[in-house]
Design goal:
Elements: E1 5-11, H1 18-28, H2 49-54, E2 61-67, E3 70-76, H3 84-93, E4 96-102, H4 109-120, E5 125-130, H5 139-150, E6 154-156, E7 158-161, E8 169-172, E9 177-181, E10 190-194, H6 197-215, H7 219-226, H8 233-245, E11 250-254, H9 263-273, E12 283-287, E13 292-296, E14 305-314, E15 318-327, E16 329-330, E17 334-338, E18 343-347, E19 349-354, E20 357-360, E21 364-365, E22 369-373, E23 383-385, E24 391-393, E25 403-409, H10 415-428, E26 433-436, E27 443-447, H11 450-463, E28 468-470, E29 474-475, E30 478-481, E31 485-495, E32 498-510, E33 518-521, H12 530-546, E34 557-565, H13 573-590, E35 593-607, H14 611-620, E36 624-630, E37 634-642, H15 649-656, E38 662-671
Parallel strand pairs: 1-3, 1-4, 4-5, 5-11, 6-11, 33-34
Antiparallel strand pairs: 2-3, 7-8, 8-9, 9-10, 12-13, 12-24, 14-15, 14-23, 15-22, 16-21, 17-18, 17-23, 19-20, 19-22, 25-27, 25-28, 25-29, 26-27, 30-35, 31-32, 32-34, 35-37, 35-38, 36-37
Length: about 700
């Protein structure tokens, strides 16, 4: 069964045609009886009301299709950068991916982001150049983009026949034939014909290039080629598959999904070149009792082990926990163990999802993806297994939210309901956080961008039918230190007639930007109980989250415990946790704290005639232009700009370009602003 299973995702920049392609895949595999279109809000995979209204994918949607005896679990991911967490958690559990490229725009900003995510999880990919029928489509320019911008080695297995309005089909370079699609039955019938004489010369050149590229990674192809004669198609497919599994080569195909051209060969390629679950490297885990790394092979007969990669709230069923089984199997009603939280839970029901519809499963086997209903404590990234085998799978990493707004219910009676809704939404989305401002009592919600927060607020107002007032967007800053400082802190409190006392010395030092926080215990005292050291660690970790001067989270600080004074009579966990918290605060205040603002990476597309106006607009917002890349119809501009000055940028950009320029923006890094005025008297040198 494992050999005939594929877990794949469709990934790309926004508006490259992911959902349109997925809808065709559903239709041709018989999962849908008619093709759903994104533009008219009828796409099966875009089931949320906001997805249908906005014409974009917001949540990754899962479905299962069957093709020539193969089971293919498909996840359609969002393309907008604000929903990058959906892509991240999907790629974490997938075995292969189809990367879509717009034939006009080539490799775009979010394409690079999702490609890096796929590389981080070592996910093999197939490249599909979509929209070959659009004005300005250039297959060979996109090829150059894939190699130049992504650093990938493309292996062209199809060539387009014609382009723009004249695009009518593809040349199959492995079988050396032409394929066209019959428009009378929505492209369901493929018309296969021998190579036309006028196409033969170009096809031979590119087949030679394919063989040459394969010979760089395959001795078998090299030997076959040097022996003379034709390299057999079966050998090409076999060796290409091996190269794809190693991410050494990336097959490239062409099509126009909206016109129903090129989709069936893409499904064939998924089966032919992307891996089965047991062909991937074993999952990385850690045995908690032995505190040692452990490889988890994909074995249906092994002990059960699964990763929760997505939580979705359903009003009737409660939490839908999307899981990927890495080992063993689960049956409905089974008791499972949440390894990280050390809690037993019951898998009441197990479902296979088709977008927002479902069907019950009798068992979820290793390698498969499904939904468990009944687990109340599970969160994204949790490992589900058994108590006798406490293995935690590697957790997912999500970017930090960089934009915040205040939100409050319109009536006091609805305030508690708002808190419950925010708790549900933050459980679903790891990049959405909620906190209460200690001074004003306001609820502050944070997310990845203006669109991200707008979508979440709309869900609160419409989906949960709760009246709420929302403040203006505010930038989420960070705090750090700029020099090393060391301080001894003492703590003494009498509680219920008993003295609680502690003393410790902490050293705070700056780390390289982007390396994160780190706590180091440099004290080795055997007479000190381990819970005391754990209490100190909790106090320091709490300090990282609560900030130094202005209450923003801290980043890139190393705190070292250099000394600790403990007495059996007065030393309590409470005292040492409080002492560590106070010590962190005072030590960091002496280490020249600094405020850091989020810097965004911009990717702008502008017609040539508006290039000067767009560049001027970027610099007016405090941005720095990194590069300008000329394309046949547009100019691609890459820039960096402070988040605080990017609010309302889209409106002004549309105004200066008559609505023809567009941009995407994603978080790049935090850096110290040259000068900031704030309540805490912030200067270019630091916080005072």
């Amino acid at each position: 069964m494992l050999k005939s299973m594929r877990n794949i995702g469709i990934m790309a920049h926004i508006d490259a045609g992911k959902t349109t392609t997925t809808e065709r895949i559903l239709y041709y595999t018989g999962k849908s009886h008619r093709i759903g279109e994104v533009d008219n809000g009828e796409a099966v995979m875009d089931w949320m009301e906001q997805e249908q209204e906005r014409g974009i994918t917001i949540q990754s949607a899962a479905t299962t299709i069957y093709w020539n005896g193969f089971q293919i679990n498909v996840i359609d991911t969002p393309g907008h950068v604000d929903f990058t967490a959906e892509v991240e958690r999907s790629l974490r559990v997938l075995d292969g991916a189809v990367a879509l490229f717009d034939a006009v725009r080539g490799v775009e900003a979010q394409t690079e982001t999702v490609w890096r995510q796929a590389a981080r999880y070592n996910v093999p990919c197939i490249c599909y150049i979509n929209k070959m029928d659009r004005l300005g489509a250039d297959f060979f320019q996109v090829l150059a983009d894939i190699q130049g911008k992504l650093g990938a080695l493309p292996a062209v297995i199809q060539l387009p026949i014609g382009k723009e309005n004249g695009f009518e089909g593809v040349i199959d370079l492995i079988m050396m034939r032409e394929i066209r699609w019959d428009p009378k039955d929505e492209g369901e019938t493929m018309l296969v014909t021998p190579l036309a004489p006028e196409q033969e010369a170009l096809a031979l050149i590119w087949r030679e290039k394919l063989i040459d590229r394969l010979s760089q990674v395959s001795d078998a192809v090299t030997e076959s080629y040097l022996a003379g004669g034709e390299v057999p198609p079966e050998l090409i497919k076999k060796e290409l598959r091996d190269a794809v599994l190693k991410r050494a080569l990336f097959p490239v195909m062409a099509g126009a999904s909206r016109r129903n051209i090129g989709v069936q060969p893409l499904i064939d390629a998924v089966v032919a070149y992307l891996p089965a679950p047991d062909e991937r490297a074993p999952a990385a885990g850690r045995h908690l009792k032995k505190d040692a790394p452990l490889d988890v092979p994909c074995d249906p007969a092994g002990l059960p082990l699964a990763l929760v990669f997505k939580i979705q709230h359903d009003r009737e069923a409660g939490s839908l926990c999307y899981v990927r089984m890495y080992s063993g199997s689960l049956k409905p009603g089974a008791v499972v163990y949440n390894v990280g939280k050390k809690k037993r839970e019951r898998a009441n029901r197990i479902l296979r999802m088709h977008s927002n519809k479902s069907e019950p499963l009798e068992s979820l086997e290793a390698g498969d993806i499904g939904v468990i209903i009944g687990m109340k404590h599970a969160q994204t990234g949790d490992t589900i297994g058994s108590e006798g085998w406490p293995v935690a799978l590697e957790r997912m990493q999500f970017p930090e939210p960089v934009i915040s707004v205040s939100i409050e219910a319109k009536t006091l009676s609805e305030q508690e309901k708002l808190r419950e809704i925010l708790s549900l939404l933050s459980k679903e989305d790891p990049t959405f956080t909620t906190k209460e401002n200690a001074e004003t009592g306001q609820l502050i919600i944070s997310g990845m961008g203006e669109l991200h927060l707008e979508v979440l607020v709309t869900r609160i107002l419409k989906e949960y039918r709760l009246g709420a007032k929302v403040g203006n967007p505010q930038v989420t800053y960070r705090e750090s230190v700029s020099r090393t400082a060391e301080r001894t802190q003492r703590f003494s409190r009498i509680i219920a007639g008993k003295e609680n006392a502690a003393a410790l010395t902490l050293r705070a030092a700056p780390r390289e930007r982007g390396s994160g926080n780190r706590y180091v215990c440099a004290v080795k005292k055997r007479e000190v109980p381990p819970p005391i050291f754990e209490a100190v660690a909790r106090g320091v970790q709490g300090g990282f989250a609560s900030g130094i001067i202005m209450g923003y989270p801290c980043i890139d600080i190393e705190v070292t415990l250099t000394d600790l004074q403990y007495s059996e009579l007065t030393g309590t966990e409470f005292a040492f946790e409080g002492c560590a918290s106070m010590g962190f605060d005072e030590t960091c205040r002496e280490a020249a704290p600094v405020l850091l603002e989020p810097i965004m990476a911009l990717d702008l597309l502008s017609p040539k005639e508006f290039l000067g106006d767009v560049l001027s607009l970027v610099t007016q917002r405090g941005g720095q232009v990194v590069s300008v890349d000329s394309k046949p119809y547009t100019e691609e501009i890459k820039a960096r700009a402070p988040m605080a000055r990017m609010f309302g940028f889209m409106t002004v950009l549309r105004s200066v370009s008559h609505g023809r320029a567009s941009f995407t923006m994603e978080f790049s890094h935090f850096e110290q602003p040259p000068a900031v005025s704030a309540a805490g008297r912030v200067s270019g040198a630091g916080l005072s």
